[in-house]
Amino acid sequence: MKMRKDIKENKGAVTIIEAAFVFPVVFFIVFFMVMAGEGYYQRARVEHEVIAAAMNGAARCENPMLGQVISSGGVPNSPTAVDVMPYRYIFTGEASSIAAQVKGELQGKLAAMRPLLFKNMSPTNVSVTADPKMNPLVSSLSLRCTFDVPFPIRMIFSNEPVKFSYSVSLTAPVGDPTELVRNVLTVENIVQRSEAISGMCGEIKSCMAKIGQWVN
Length: 216
Description:
This protein is of the alpha+beta class. The chain has two domains: 174 residues, no CATH class; 41 residues. 58% of the residues lie in helices and 19% in strands. Strands 1-2-3 form a three-stranded antiparallel beta sheet. A hairpin with a 6-residue loop joins strand 2 and strand 3. The N and C termini lie far apart (116 Å). The model has no long low-confidence stretch (mean pLDDT 77).
């Protein structure tokens, strides 16, 4: 009986010792998994905002009236109440102004983000770049955002918290066939009204016809 009692007491002591070693390890693993989940959650939120901003910016490059329509809730009645930004594919400063507006709006939304579980785990050191590439045939708007997510832990002999650096980028295509057709028709009208240009085009056509006959 005494031997059985000693065995039971020894088993209880072993269980306590095992728990003393295993519990901190398990707690650290679970804690780290929760923190990692918070970090990926913040990254997903930033990625969502970048995608939405890029698509919104591309749509506003296609239709410069879209920003005012969204803000006012309706289409302006007066033609002078909105800047339609004609020939923005040639004078790319108009597209750059739209990209600057989208960049500012995105920075404001990212600055207002708050952590979900842990304090001070919101995105920091946020840097946003907007690069519009406006061409008559193929256009796009590229957004790139770099940021850090600090973790509420510190390494030994370090005063700075551990932080993970992320980068999110997206290139949204800009397609506006109506503007291209409008520009082509404008150039065609200018050519037709100018006698000098019309004569030059006629000479070019005749030269091309002679070259085609010579080749054939």
